[in-house]
Each structure stands twice: as C-alpha cells, then as structure tokens.
Design brief:
Elements: H1 10-15, H2 26-34, E1 37-50, E2 78-82, E3 95-100, H3 102-125, E4 130-140, E5 146-158, E6 170-171, H4 176-184, E7 187-202, H5 205-211, E8 216-217, E9 220-221, H6 229-247, E10 254-266, E11 272-285
Parallel strand pairs: 4-6
Antiparallel strand pairs: 1-5, 2-3, 3-7, 4-5, 7-11, 8-9, 10-11
Length: 302
C-alpha cells in the first residue's frame, strides 16, 4: 500500500471486503446501537519491540526517586538495602537494591503506542469516529528481549454526524452499558491510556534467606512471620510508578475504568522482577448529566 499511512497491505483488503466484523458481545452491540453508534469493522494493530539491558555506563541507570529514595545518577526509582551483620563472605550478599527498569518501560510504551497508532489508522480507513471495546495484549517471544503487542477494537461511527477529520478517532476500553453510563454522566472518551512500571529486586542477604523460607541465619533469629521489606517496597513502588506514569498522560482530564494487573518473575536467589500494568480510559466532561432514553423492548411476554 502506498500513501502516508502505516496500514499493512492486507488491512485495506480486509476493511474494504464488504463483510462486517465486530469484537462486541451481543449485549454490547445492542447498547452500541441504542447510543447511536454504528459498528463498521474490527480494527487492530501489531508491533514487535526489542530492548537492551541495564549495566555499568548504561543511560538507564537512575538516581533520585520521586518517592524519596536515592541513588546515583539523575531521576527515577532506586532504593538501597544493606547487610546488618557486618561481615563479608563468598555467599553472603551484603548489599541489595530495588531499581526501576526504565528501558523495559520505554520499550513497552513504544511498542504499545506503535500498535495503538496502527489500529487508529485502520479506524480512519473506514471513516470511524471512534473505537470502542479496545483490548490490548503483550507477550514475550521465546527467551529473547522481544515483546509482541496487539491492540484490537471495534470501529464505530456516530449516526447523523459529519465525517471525522483526519487523526480524530477517539478510543475507549469501555463498551455497552459501561460506555452508555459514561456518556449519560456527561463524559466523552478521549483515548485509552496504558502504562507499565517495572522494578528489579536485587536481593540482599536478609531478603534472599527469607525468600528461601529460612528462619535462622548468621546468628540472627528470623521469625516465620517476618515481613520481607525489600519485596514489599518493590511492589508498592511499582504501583506508585504506574500511577505516576499514567498521570503524565492525562493533563487536566480524568481516568475512568481503571484496571491494575501485577506480575512477578523470579530471576535468581531472592531476585525478581515486579511489573505493574495500569489501563483506563481518558475522559473529558462535555455536558451535564443527561439520561439516555430507555431502550424499547423488542420481545413482549403478553
């Protein structure tokens, strides 16, 4: 395909085939029609993204944290942990650190934005005013530092409205009754917002031993109910970072329909990666509360 868009060659054939497709459930489809939104096609975007590693001299080394922790360098989350025992051994980890993996976050955001942009370009191809019921997935390809992103939604047009200008389609994770209630409350969806925070736990001696289920080590008794503070702090930091990343995308708008998902991956003795993904719909008020007329019944029981 030639032209200014980044739509793959197969997409125009799919979108112009004359067949109709939708990612909506039957109830969501019915609610869509009740709101005056007519589905015109399923649209999607893909991207595969590769990223590098953290290391000495890396531009991703971070320092002062917005949460009050500190390290070296400039900006980002970093928190140090030190051994209380006062001795060094070959298997004794006297120092640990939690740090933000900014290269993972930046690669994830770049991959998501690329896939999202291609979905919006497909929506423009069919003259859509917006995309509803958006879903996005990402997964790693084999053992490589590569992730594949897939963003998918149902393109809709507003019945009776003029054609949208270039680059205008709005998007939302919402559909059906949830979208109807949002519009009824006087809010208009602007765009989906998705962001990730990735925190690496480099365990020190106490964390390593507790993560292995130990209760006594190096002359010190460790209660079976002891909190693993380094791991707890990493999880709190990942959630706070995800919220902070999302706020930067909102401006004066608000975020609705928020979902949080957190994953942990073990990478060594006590070491792990904590990732928190936040998703929601950026909305803006455009009118006061205006109830939507109740739908007409299509089946009568008497």
């Amino acid at each position: 395909m030639t032209g200014p868009t980044d739509v793959p060659e197969a997409a125009p054939r799919r979108l112009e085939s004359g067949s109709f497709s939708s990612g909506l459930t039957v109830p969501d489809f019915a609610a869509c029609l009740q709101m005056g939104l007519r589905p015109v096609g399923l649209v999607q975007g893909f991207c595969a993204m590769q990223w590098g590693w953290y290391g000495a001299g890396s531009p991703y080394l971070r320092g002062t944290s917005p949460f009050g922790f500190s390290g070296g360098g400039g900006g980002g989350y970093m928190q140090n942990w030190y051994c209380p025992h006062g001795f060094v051994g070959g298997e004794h980890r006297t120092w640990g650190q939690n740090y933000e993996q900014t290269w993972v976050e930046e690669a994830w955001l770049s991959g998501f934005n690329a896939a999202f942009g291609r979905m919006i370009e497909e929506a423009e191809e069919v003259g859509a005013h917006g995309v509803i019921g958006v879903t996005d997935t990402s997964h790693n390809l084999a053992d490589m530092r590569v992730a594949e992103f897939h963003v998918l939604g149902t393109a809709v047009v507003v019945e009776g409205a003029p054609p949208p200008p270039k680059g205008l389609p709005w998007s939302t994770y919402l559909a059906g009754q949830r979208l109807a209630k949002l519009l009824e409350a006087g809010f208009m969806p602007i765009s989906v917002v998705a962001t990730i925070a990735s925190v690496r736990v480099w365990a020190y001696c106490i964390t390593e031993y507790l993560m292995e289920g130990g209760a006594y080590a190096w002359g010190q008794s460790l209660s079976s109910t002891t909190e693993i503070e380094q791991v707890s702090e990493a999880r709190l930091a990942a959630r706070a970072l995800a919220r902070d990343h999302a706020r930067r995308q909102l401006g004066t708008d608000t975020l609705q329909g928020i979902t949080f998902s957190a994953t942990e991956r073990e990478v060594g003795a006590g070491d792990q990666v904590v990732e928190c993904t936040l998703r929601g719909t950026r909305v803006r008020r455009f009118k006061d509360f205006d109830p939507i007329p109740p739908p007409r019944p299509t089946v009568r029981l008497s």
